[in-house]
Amino acid sequence: MATVALKTVRKVYAGGMEAVKGIDLTVPDGALCVLVGPSGCGKSTLLRMIAGLEEISSGTIEIDGRVVNALEPAERDIAMVFQNYALYPHMSVYDNMAYGLRNRGTPKPEIERKVREAARMLELGSLLDRRPRQLSGGQRQRVAMGRAIVRDPKVFLFDEPLSNLDAKLRGQMRVEIRKLQRDLGVTSIYVTHDQLEAMTLADVLVVMNSGRIEQVGAPLDVYEEP
Ligand code: ADP
Ligand code: ADP
């Protein structure tokens, strides 16, 4: 578990577009923080800066008390779950989940234990030999989550992970993500433009607009304000 602290974080893209205008935010240990707001308000930019996929123009980002501004994504102890799953099509479900651990040189028995444990949690146990194209959308999203879980990260980052799923499955997966996040207790930051998704998932709800935080609080407090 880890606290994530953003201190006056800004992003100015080449060309002068100020996408994130000095954001201060602390996400406590184990909390699920949802960033919600209209398209173009800077959610993905902020998430990508935390992931290390986008350079920060100014400010600092701390994970577990350590400034990570200059660290590569692999050194940040994070795992990201993307909207498009980003699975390797030619690899089995097992190999997709094991890939990052193999690259790190994790011993084989440990890889196997972690992959099987994640597969059990995600009900993928009987699908480990399949290729991504032989899976449903929901199953693919579970594999993407499995790949994040086996990394044992301090922080999960979710970039609109459910937006490619139909409405019914989206509701189901929302419940699963909520439960999984609680069970694992991993600090999480979750980006969506869907208010219902934000309301049902968030411990801490952050409403963004034009690169700034408009409101922050528990979901009911945020939406009950006059
Ligand atoms: P959101 O995730 O809330 O939809 P983004 O973070 O994707 O918002 O985008 C915030 C703003 O930054 C938008 O105006 C977008 O057009 C702009 N933007 C995003 N990526 C780039 C980029 N690589 N170069 C220039 N402007 C960008
Ligand atoms: P490593 O164990 O060194 O991270 P990987 O092959 O898993 O090796 O990762 C290669 C790059 O892709 C690294 O920068 C890593 O952080 C990033 N990466 C891979 N999978 C994920 C993921 N699920 N979330 C975030 N970053 C990832």
TrEMBL record:
<dbReference type="GO" id="GO:0055052">
    <property type="term" value="C:ATP-binding cassette (ABC) transporter complex, substrate-binding subunit-containing"/>
</dbReference>
<dbReference type="GO" id="GO:0001407">
    <property type="term" value="P:glycerophosphodiester transmembrane transport"/>
</dbReference>
<dbReference type="GO" id="GO:0140359">
    <property type="term" value="F:ABC-type transporter activity"/>
</dbReference>
<keyword id="KW-0547">Nucleotide-binding</keyword>
<feature type="domain" description="ABC transporter">
    <location>
        <begin position="4"/>
        <end position="226"/>
    </location>
</feature>
<dbReference type="GO" id="GO:0016887">
    <property type="term" value="F:ATP hydrolysis activity"/>
</dbReference>
<dbReference type="GO" id="GO:0005524">
    <property type="term" value="F:ATP binding"/>
</dbReference>
<protein>
    <submittedName>
        <fullName>Carbohydrate ABC transporter ATP-binding protein (CUT1 family)</fullName>
    </submittedName>
</protein>
<keyword id="KW-0997">Cell inner membrane</keyword>
<keyword id="KW-0813">Transport</keyword>
<keyword id="KW-1278">Translocase</keyword>
<keyword id="KW-0762">Sugar transport</keyword>
<dbReference type="GO" id="GO:0015794">
    <property type="term" value="P:glycerol-3-phosphate transmembrane transport"/>
</dbReference>
<keyword id="KW-1003">Cell membrane</keyword>
<keyword id="KW-0067">ATP-binding</keyword>
<dbReference type="GO" id="GO:0008643">
    <property type="term" value="P:carbohydrate transport"/>
</dbReference>
<keyword id="KW-0472">Membrane</keyword>
<comment type="similarity">
    <text>Belongs to the ABC transporter superfamily.</text>
</comment>
